[in-house]
Amino acid sequence: MALVESQLVPEQALFDQVIPAGDGFTYLVKRGQVLRIVDLEGNQAADTLFYDAHEPSNRYSAVDTVREQGNIYLTTGTRLLSTEGDVLLTIVADTCGRHDTLGGACAAESNQVRYALEKKYMHACRDTFLLTIACCTPDLSKRDLAANVNFFMNVPVTSEGKLTFEDGVSGPGRYVEMRAERDVRVLISNCPQLNNPCNGYEPSEVRVLVWGQG
Amino acid sequence: MSEPRLILEEPLRGGQMWSRVLRRGQTLRLTDVEGGASVAALFYNAEELSERYNMPDTLKAQHTARLTANHVLYSDMGRVLCSVTEDTVGWHDTITGHGTALHNRKKYGEGSYQKLRNDRYCNSRDNFVVELGKYELGKRDIVANLNFFVKVVADAQGALSFVPENSRPGAYVTLRAELHTLIVLSNTPHPMDPRRAYAPRPVALTIRAGLPAAIEDPCRQSCPENGRGFTLTDGYFAGREAAWP
Questions:
Q1: Is residue B35 part of a domain?
Q2: Phi, psi (5° rounding) for residue A141?
């Protein structure tokens, strides 16, 4: 895994915000702007969706992204493709080295399946997504919630077809940075999961920065 | 033991799309008549069309990146849409999506209706848009699909490769509906298939009567997650089994 650092400095960022664990976030990243997500304490999962800002049915597609690049892991050089085959963003720096896009987001219902029926009450990413789009992006609804990117999460697949959730390869201060190739709506759920190692059983903050023309 | 009552037999030509609501308990067998077929598939709860097949939930619940017998297909609501009750193929893909008109043009050339009539080069994206449109569904309802008869493997670095000849002539896979499930199929070449000619293979569809998964069913017992998934599915029908349609 080749790690690529960025030359951008936080002091010159246009936007800089910390997202607490379990919170949602949305932002319109304009074409040419650069978005960075920082795993402040390490082993956090930032569940992230992207939409063409002007045509939200043209949204991030995990399966098109992995098929067209011929690899299931996302890292520097990955072009995040949409359902229409457009490049939404390109990953330009990555000090983590590997990000998942097959593991999806947690939901109250899938937590019941995966862990125990009595886990239904626990906070989950889908709740965050639904609440965030309900208040900020009325053009989006549950129909628009498809398979997401899990930045900093490690979900290895074997050649025999096994899939597991492993301890993260991320660490404190690791980040991923991407350049918007068109105007893109970014939607993040900073994952509240307590039942698996995707965030080290200790969900923590992530930081979002944006550089470029305002 | 005699086969359960036959409801419908229907061919699925190369290039063709198809859909039907499979009632809870009914089974659908897809047979790869000549070998080398590829059928893209999407699944919805026919009673609540916003509930649909969820690739990540299906994979992580069963700790698998492929689908075969004794696996189930999960919806985004923690319920089982369909079980895979029989499979002579061994590997069906769900991580590499489906092709578009652009894929076809780049790989096979124009393939227009004007020239080829109904042997035109069909693609799964347009097939899905059309077939879903018949239910007032659209692009927003197209999610990561299943690819019957297709095998794509990832190596230790995550690199993907298409495995040719995954499915032999006569190979089949059987699904059992656990919800009343709208199944949408599109029979077109997989976008990673290296064959240079556009030549989708014929598939045979067979629907039979049946009952939902019994307590001792292998799909229910294949992992504790599936036991809970079926509990949630059974709970969804509690008290109204005979009420639909």
A1: yes
A2: -145, -175
The domain total for chain B is 1
Cβ atoms of residues B168 and B61 within 8 Å: no
Does this model's pTM top 0.90? My answer is: yes
Of B76, B100, B231, the CB nearest to A117: B231
pLDDT digits (tens, 9 = 90+) for A28-84: 999 999 999 999 999 999 999 999 999 999 999 999 999 999 999 999 999 999 999
pLDDT grade, residue B242 (50/70/90)? low
Q: Among partner residues B60, B97, B228, which is closest to A61 by beta-carbon distance?
A: B97
- Is B243 part of a structural domain of the chain? no
Name the residue range of residue B191's domain.
Answer: 6-237
Chosen from B42, B60, B103 to mutate, greatest number of chain A CBs within 10 A: B60
For residue A31, give how far its alpha carbon lies from the nearest alpha carbon of chain B (Å). 23
> pLDDT tens digits, residue range B122-137?
999 999 999 999 999 9
Give A45→chain B minimum CA distance, Å.
Answer: 15
3-class SS string, B74-126: EECCCCEEEEEEEECCCCEECCCCCCCHHHHHHHHCCCCHHHHHHHCCCCHHH
Report how many Cβ contacts below 8 Å link chain A to chain B. Answer: 130
Overall size of chain A counted in residues: 214
Q: Is B164 within the bounds of a domain?
A: yes
ipTM value greater than 0.85 = yes
Q: B65: which chain A residues are within 8 Å (Cβ-Cβ)?
A: 102, 157-158, 161-163
Picking from B76, B132, B161, B234 by the largest number of A CB atoms within 10 A of its own CB, the best residue to mutate is B76
| Nearest of B4, B14, B10, B5 to residue B188 by alpha carbon | B14
